[in-house]
Write a structure and sequence with these properties.
about 10% strand, globular, Ribonuclease iii, N-terminal Endonuclease Domain, Chain A
Length: about 230
């Protein structure tokens, strides 16, 4: 649950996707700007708080390992999952078109709105409150990341998995590009034996590929018959 904001308008702005500004009456928002600037701020605040958390939690790990851990903790899929847990998917202000296109389930939009909310919380109540909040809702996920080795490069893990089954190399295919050049969202499919095993989104092709590989690994892990991928 989100902390109560002193300035509710800050929270409203954080929840407002740029598409909603064109349909204020239909979307229900009274915000005069989108959440993009708050997203920019929140991204930096989350990265700082996560860096401090990992620095303190893993005193024996080298910089490269800490960077890898941080990437796993704050990647799009992790933040999108947290956004849904907090109910931000239902609180976002979106245009009818964005909503009809699955905006409330779009991992990139969900991660963006979480970052914007954190940016707004920082402005509203300061860093200490943000850090306390993240310690409750985000940092506990690190134990799962460690136990499942989710910090490892997902594309590399998928490559190892298919090689172990003597299958062809996964192929990554960009199927959609959305948004302006400075704020694009990419959707990528990963195919194995001409079958789509994962779909991912991200603000870069690399992040979208990693997300699609992660989905493919989850599907493979859930297969009763490990060889069904060949069918």
């Amino acid at each position: 649950m989100l902390p109560k904001f002193n300035d509710p308008h800050l929270l409203m702005t954080a929840l407002t996707h740029r598409s909603a500004l064109n349909e204020k009456e239909q979307s229900g928002t009274a915000a005069s700007e989108s959440n993009e600037r708050l997203e920019f701020l929140g991204d930096a605040v989350i990265e700082l708080a996560s860096t401090i958390f990992l620095y303190q939690q893993r005193p024996s790990d080298a910089e490269g390992m800490l960077t890898t851990y941080r990437s796993a903790l704050v990647r799009t899929e992790s933040l999108a999952e947290l956004a849904k847990e907090l109910g931000l998917d239902q609180q976002m202000y979106l245009s009818k078109g964005e909503e009809a296109g699955g905006g409330r389930d779009n991992p990139s939009l969900l991660a963006d709105v979480l970052e914007a909310v954190i940016g707004a919380l920082y402005l509203d109540q300061g860093y200490a409150v943000v850090e306390e909040f993240l310690a409750k809702v985000l940092f506990p996920k690190f134990s799962h990341i460690l136990s499942t080795k989710a910090y490892r490069d997902q594309k590399s893990l998928l490559q190892e998995t298919v090689q172990a089954q003597s299958l062809p190399t996964p192929i990554y295919r960009v199927v959609k590009e959305e948004g302006p050049d400075h704020h694009k969202t990419f959707t990528v499919e990963v195919l194995i034996n001409d079958k789509v095993w994962g779909v991912g989104t991200g603000n870069s092709k690399q992040r979208a590929q990693q997300a699609s590989a992660a989905m493919a690994l989850q599907k493979l892990a859930g297969e009763d018959d490990a060889h069904s991928i060949s069918s």
